């Protein structure tokens, strides 16, 4: 079973995935953060604040590879739908075939949570941009036929418990 955790930037997704990994579950880290680390390592320029289109294309390629490599119960921090939103935002074509063929079994959405939103070296955009992106991502998942389950604004432990209980139902 492939479980997508998407939603608002700064909404606690990565921390939640860390908790699920701590509990022994297979997780796939957010492509965006991995791409930024790789670009820093190789002195590249496919950063979202330098070349957003190149960044979006890399995010899609990485999301496809992540999907193809996963086995069994796996939790993903963003994926092909998220990357497609970034591609469209940079003037590219929506990769409808990829969205249709790389599906996730369940979708959990982290809603905006301004009280915990912080910028860091990799998250340079404003909360306002995060909110606009959140709406586009949420709408893209719904348009792709997903039925999102909104995560509660609660402790990371409670959120992980919520996901695991929902999957058992």
TrEMBL record:
- Note one Pfam family from the annotation: AAA_28
Name listed for the protein in its UniProt record: AAA family ATPase
The UniProt record lists the NadR/Ttd14 AAA domain at 3-159
């Amino acid at each position: 079973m492939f479980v997508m955790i998407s939603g608002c930037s700064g909404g606690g997704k990565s921390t939640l995935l860390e908790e699920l990994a701590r509990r022994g579950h297979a997780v796939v880290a957010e492509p965006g953060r991995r791409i930024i680390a790789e670009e820093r390592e190789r002195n590249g320029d496919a950063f979202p604040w330098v070349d957003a289109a190149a960044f979006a294309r890399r995010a899609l390629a990485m999301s496809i590879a992540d999907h193809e490599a996963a086995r069994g119960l796996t939790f993903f921090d963003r994926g092909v739908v998220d990357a497609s939103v970034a591609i469209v935002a940079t003037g590219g074509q929506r990769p409808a075939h990829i969205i249709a063929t790389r599906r996730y079994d369940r979708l959990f959405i982290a809603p905006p949570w301004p009280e915990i939103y912080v910028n860091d070296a990799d998250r340079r955009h404003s909360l306002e941009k995060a909110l606009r992106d959140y709406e586009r991502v949420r709408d893209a998942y719904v348009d792709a036929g997903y039925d999102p389950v909104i995560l509660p604004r609660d402790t990371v432990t409670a959120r992980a418990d919520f996901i695991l209980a929902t999957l058992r139902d």
